[in-house]
Every structure is written in structure tokens, then in C-alpha cells.
Amino acid sequence: MALPQTQTTDELVTTITQMIAAQDLTSLTHVLSPVTPTDLVPVFERLSRKQRAVIYRLLAKDRAADVFELLDPPLQSDLLHGLQDAEVSQLFADLDHDDRLWLLDEVPAALATRLLRGLPEQERVLTSALLGYPQGSAGRRMSLEYVSTRESFTVAETMDRVRTRLDDAETIYTIPVLDDSRHVVGVVSLRGLLGAAGETLISALMSPAHTAAAEDDAELAARRCADLQLLAMPIVDREQRLLGMLTIDDAIRILEHEESEDAARQGGTEPLRRPYLSTPVGSLVRSRVVWLLVLAVGATLTVQVLSVFEATIEQVTVLALFVPLLIGTGGNTGNQAATTVTRALALGDVQSRDFIRVLTRELRTGGMLGLLLGTLGFAIAAIAYTPQIGLVIGLTLLCVCTLAAAVGGCMPLLARAVKVDPAVFSNPFISTFVDASGLIIYFLIARSVLGL
After folding, report:
1. Which label site among 118, 121, 196, 344 has the fewest CB atoms less than 10 Å from its CB?
2. Please, how many CA atoms are within 13 Å of residue 142, restricted to the half-sphere of its CB?
3. Which helix (H) or strand (E) holds 312?
4. What average pLDDT does range 153-182 have in this prediction?
């Protein structure tokens, strides 16, 4: 049953807040009873840590476990801090292996150690095995709960294996086919099994397998899984032996996580890693202040440039009026190029080796944009002031747009080449660089055209 039509999520949050304040837990239990786990997730995201712990304890055990699995890892971490050790251990043990890794990345090291100790021995061994892979690798995000078959097996034998693993396997729709040494030699789909005769050999049904190495970057493996429209991708070791499966839901989760980080860093902040309304104000400040300090220091370059050309501005004061227009246009042009190329890198459309091709394309693109904007700027400035001022504005827009597009397009490629997140080199730094260099170009052109 979904939320009552007469009560929205915001209204439910208000009701819960009022009942907790009044300590009317009996009525609160009745309010929560018809709400599905899926509908409770946005409610949890809007409540404080203490309020989340209160309503979580009021949920029935099965519903509480369902809600916990649907929450983001940072919110799961918050809940664990507010629950007793026995409850924490049970919740952690009930998670899938790959979901445990997401949570362990969020909790403090001391709590992570305590959680691992509370697992049954077999679960602890499997989870520790995943922790052995590098942070951000495909091996750390793979599932160990899968069904495999052999190329010498029949369809009937494989279907028996599927039925015995229905309750614990995370995916059964894509089944890796192994040889006697556990090398992945192909895959077979559940659809193919259901449509074949029981005595048919798997070797006759299997298709080539697309695999990823456990040490591969998780984002690249997830991107490949999504691009190929696979329901699951085998994760293998260096000898092509099967280690686990990367499922499409985990691939999408990885891509959403990475794109959230890129979007945050392109805007000059650190990623929050949790829903906005559940993020403490102190965390919001910390996510922004470092970047603001860095950009403030970078902005002093612009001030220095203005001070160097102070005499030029005093001779022709009208030049100062166009400074915001020129640096704003240059920054926007660079940001557009950087965003486009960063996205192309994420999709695998370009690589660091395409530097010259990208530079050439962005020089042409920036030049054409600069020509269009420069012509418009020349016409407006010439009518409003003088043709000489119009020429200065037009030439500056042409040069600034060309430079900004080239810099914006190449910065993400340089970042990828030196193993740095391309988003870090994106909008904030490009804007600061283009502001300073654009002003230098502007005043040099003004001096030349106006004879200053």
C-alpha cells in the first residue's frame, strides 16, 4: 500500500516529527503501518539521525530489514550508530556481500572491524575476500552469489543448479559457462535455457562472454556493462577464472555514484555522498569551503591583471564596463567545452591519446563561436560607443572564446593522463584561468587598437 493520497511525503514527515516530539509512539506506529518500505525511504532522508532511529525501531523486523537495504550507505551508517550491537550485527549479516562493501566504505574503521567480527565465519571470509581488492575496483563491487554451469552439462542439469540457488543467488538471468579449470568460456541466458530441450548441451547454447578483470576500475566495468546492455558481467582474474558477477543494478549504482561526484566537483564542491536534507550543515560547509578558498586564491590572478593594466583603464574608462561580459563569456565557453569532453571521457568516446583531435575540434568550435559573438559585440559596441571600441570587443571575444574552448576541452584529457579526476580540472579552475588570461588578451588588444 502506498502513501495515502491525502498525505504527501512532506506531510508524513511533519506528522512523524510532531508525534516524536509529543512522544506519542503508539499513534506513530499506526501512522507507519500502511507505508511501504519504498515510500519510507524519502521519509528517512528528510529526518534527523535521532528521528530515523526512533521510527526504525517501531517498524516490524521484516519491514525494517527491507527499509535498511533500500537506504543509501551513509544513512545505513547513521542507523547503525543508533542501534544496539545485536541489531547491528543482524542487519549487517542480512546484507548481500557487495552491499556490505558499500556500507563498510562509509563507516569508521573501528565500527567496520566490529561489524566483520560479528559475521558468521563463512560470511566473514567471503566479505574479507572482497575487501582485499583495491578501492574503486570491479572486484570490490562484484557479487559472489551467482549460478554457474559447465559447457559439458545439459540444459536439464543446469536448470537443476538454478533451482537449488534460487533463494540465495543474486542473479540467475546470465549464467557463466566454465571449463574444468573454472575459466570463463561463454555465457548462457535463462531465456535460452527455458527455450531449449532438456538434453541439449550448454556448449551448443552458449555465446561469447564479455568479462572484466577484478582489478579494473569499477566505473569502466560498469560503463561497459551498461553500454553492452548486459544483465550481468563475469568478473575474472588474470587467468580468466571466474571470481564473481557484476550485476546491472550494481553497475547503475556505480555510475550514479560517479556521476554525482563529477557533477559536484564540476560545480566546485566535494560530493555529499548522502541525500541533501539528511546532510548536516557542518558537512555542507566542509564540502564547499576548501574549494572556495582555492578559487579565492586563484581569483587574485584577476585582481593582479587589473592592477597591471590600471593605467590603460584610466585612459579609456569605458573598457572597464565590458570586463564582466568578457570574462563571463570566456568562463562559460570553457565550462561548456570541459563538460562536453568530461562526459565523452566517462562514456569512452574519447581517450587521452585523442588530445590533438580534441584540441583541433575545440579550436574550430571556439573560433566559430567567437566569430559569431564577436560580430555581435562589435556591432553593439560600435553603435553605443565608437568603432574602435567595437573592434576591441569583437576581437577580444574571438580570441577569448577560442582560447577558452581549447583550454576547457584539453584540461579533462590532461587530468585523465595524469590519473586525476577530470571533474577536478573542470569548471572552477577553467573559469579562474580564463578570467585572468582573457583580461590580458583584452587589454593587449585595447592597447594595440587604441594606440595606448
Report:
1. 121
2. 30
3. helix 310-315
4. 92
Residue 72 contacts residue 275 (beta carbons within 8 Å): yes
The H or E element that residue 190 is part of is helix 190-194
Residues 6+ apart with CB under 8 A from 324: none
Give the Cα-Cα-Cα angle 142, 147, 148 (nearest 5 degrees). Answer: 100
Answer positive or negative: Cα dihedral of 163, 164, 168, 173.
negative
Q: How many helices (H) and strands (E) does the chain have?
A: 22, 6
> Which pLDDT value is given to residue 1?
39
Pick the closest to residue 245 from 151, 176, 168 (CA basis): 176
How far is residue 378's CA from residue 384's CA, in Å, rounded to a whole number? 10
HEC readout, 96-163 = CHHHHHHHHCCCCHHHHHHHHHCCCHHHHHHHHHHHCCCCCEHHHHCECCECCEECCCEHHHHHHHHH
| Distance from C-alpha of 376 to C-alpha of 301, rounded to nearest angstrom | 29
- d(CA 103, CA 141) in angstroms, rounded, equals 12
Residue 264 DSSP symbol = H
| 49-58 and 61-70 helices, crossing angle to 10° | 140
Q: Is the dihedral of CA 354, 356, 360, 363 positive or negative?
A: positive
Q: According to the per-residue pLDDT averaged within each range, which of 23-32, 172-181, 341-350, 421-430 is highest?
A: 172-181
Integer-rounded Cα Rg, in Å, for the chain is 29
Q: Which amino acid is residue 134, in one-letter code? A: P
The x, y and z cell numbers of residue 444, run together, are 593587449
- For 95-118, how does the pLDDT look when each residue is reduced to its tens digit (9 = 90+)? 877 788 888 877 777 777 777 877
